[in-house]
Amino acid sequence: MINPAPPWPVASAEGVRLKLADGRELIDGMASWWAVIHGYNHPRLNRALEEQLKRMAHVMFGGLTHPTAIDLARRLVALTPDPLEKVFLCDSGSVSVEVAIKMAIQYWQARGRSSKHRLLALAGGYHGDTFAAMSVCDPSVGMHHLFKGVLPQQFFAPRPRCRFGEPWDPDDITEFAHLIEEHADALAAVILEPIIQGAGGMWFYHPEYLRQVRALCDVHDVLLITDEIATGFGRTGKLFACEHADIVPDILCLGKALTGGYLTLAATLTTTEVAETISRGGAGCFMHGPTFMANPLACAVATASIDLLCESGWQCRVQNIEQQLRAELTACAKLPGVRDVRVLGATGVVEMHNPVDPSWLTQRFVEAGIWLRPFDRLIYMMPPYVIEPQDLSSMTSAVRCVLAEMGR
């Protein structure tokens, strides 16, 4: 509220372009926080909404159901690995994390082990802005340090050190293993972002770490929650990032790209064992019920988005984006002030040694015809999968030029 950076009014959006109110067009490298994977104003997604709107915009999902929710749940169960068979449809990614945490706590309550109510998370993680979600975000360098002492107190393991694509060091899991063994009697679940830690630092870590975490959860009787809100639906080159490690969580959180960026919707999937144990507990059901859960409009466009993704050859698109980002961002590593360049799937990151001036950088990127939103030390891009090579080149070229200008 005090001297804010001016926002950029958007008049319309089409494909990968945002048209500003002053007539300028920007190539969107953010996919509106990684959600608009098919681009803007897609005719097939528009049609799904229009057709659903003629039937009903909303109906409560308590005591009632509707075909669009059933269709979406069936697709999600078919897409995700066994034994994830039960789906809870909720409002947003952050709420899906709240739901996952409550599921884990209720599960252990139903098993007569109510002392298992805390979480083990990773430093450098980010899981949302609601209270339980904030409690498992990085406690010292995250966005939520102002609430320290108010939030539930959780356990944190160091961020994985071994990078994706580099040799595995068995010592990387040592501290995590120590923590889960020491606190197993208090732990309801481990929660982490698989392979890519997103808003907490855009860090890409080794799949073996994830495999080891799954194995340790099994040994110590702790549930595993994977937060695939950012990574789900192809962003890492796999449909779900857990596939890089060939593991299945007990609870899976999805959001963002679920509806192709059209409407807010999220899903929390779990196993029949977890779901039925909760229902055999004292409450007799899972204790959560958002007003707009399974909203028919959101479910209809989510189903259309999933079908469109599966039919689109997304694997080839994401692979091509990855190859182009690697080829065109590599030169940034030689620029003054650049600490690291890393790419995985349809995500490219340039990390600086020092925090950047986001207002100045954003202004320069807009002048160059692209939309990126840097934060802290990171300039990163997560474009829609439909971006054409020439548009992606315009983006990477603008990043190189602006960073070179910063270094002069």
TrEMBL record:
Residues noted as binding pyridoxal 5'-phosphate in the record, renumbered to the chain: 93-94, 227, 290-291
Transmembrane regions: none
Catalytic activity: (8S)-8-amino-7-oxononanoate + S-adenosyl-L-methionine = S-adenosyl-4-methylsulfanyl-2-oxobutanoate + (7R,8S)-7,8-diammoniononanoate
EC number: 2.6.1.62
Principal location class: cytoplasm
GO biological process, one term: biotin biosynthetic process
Residue positions where N6-(pyridoxal phosphate)lysine is found in the record: 256
Pfam families cross-referenced by the UniProt entry: Aminotran_3
Tree of life domain: Bacteria
Pathway annotation: Cofactor biosynthesis; biotin biosynthesis; 7,8-diaminononanoate from 8-amino-7-oxononanoate (SAM route): step 1/1
PROSITE patterns: AA_TRANSFER_CLASS_3
InterPro entries associated with the record: Aminotrans_3 (IPR005814), Aminotrans_3_PPA_site (IPR049704), BioA (IPR005815), PyrdxlP-dep_Trfase (IPR015424), PyrdxlP-dep_Trfase_major (IPR015421), PyrdxlP-dep_Trfase_small (IPR015422)
Compartment annotation: Cytoplasm
Keywords assigned: Aminotransferase, Biotin biosynthesis, Cytoplasm, Pyridoxal phosphate, S-adenosyl-L-methionine, Transferase
GO molecular function, one term: adenosylmethionine-8-amino-7-oxononanoate transaminase activity
GO cellular component, one term: cytoplasm
Subunit structure: Homodimer.
Record-stated family: Belongs to the class-III pyridoxal-phosphate-dependent aminotransferase family. BioA subfamily.
Job description of the protein: Catalyzes the transfer of the alpha-amino group from S-adenosyl-L-methionine (SAM) to 7-keto-8-aminopelargonic acid (KAPA) to form 7,8-diaminopelargonic acid (DAPA). It is the only aminotransferase known to utilize SAM as an amino donor.
Name of the protein: Adenosylmethionine-8-amino-7-oxononanoate aminotransferase
UniProt lineage: Bacteria, Pseudomonadati, Pseudomonadota, Gammaproteobacteria, Chromatiales
Gene name per UniProt: bioA
